[in-house]
Design goal:
Blueprint: H1 2-14, H2 18-31, E1 45-46, H3 48-55, H4 59-68, E2 75-78, E3 81-85, H5 86-94
Antiparallel strand pairs: 1-3, 2-3
Helix pairs in contact: 2-4
Amino acid sequence: MEHAGREALAVRRQRRKPADLFRAAREADAATGGGNSVTREHDNIVRLPEVRRRTGLHRATIYRKVAAGTFPTQIAISTNCVGWYESDINEWVGSPR
């Protein structure tokens, strides 16, 4: 019984955490040249609660779609804080993938 518990714990540890998904998305964004052609200095940054409200998606679904490349990648605002460019979210809402 104890051995089965250790296996389950090992499987849970192998699951990807949002930080891992963020890192993968950031690397993919860097590889593609990053974002769309909008001038970013005048673009608003939207936090997760607002992204959820606008898209109707749950947090896990958003991060899963980011990892799959079907949702805009987020940007790091600080160490533990991310956001999305408003133009990217508006573009995705107009034509979701």
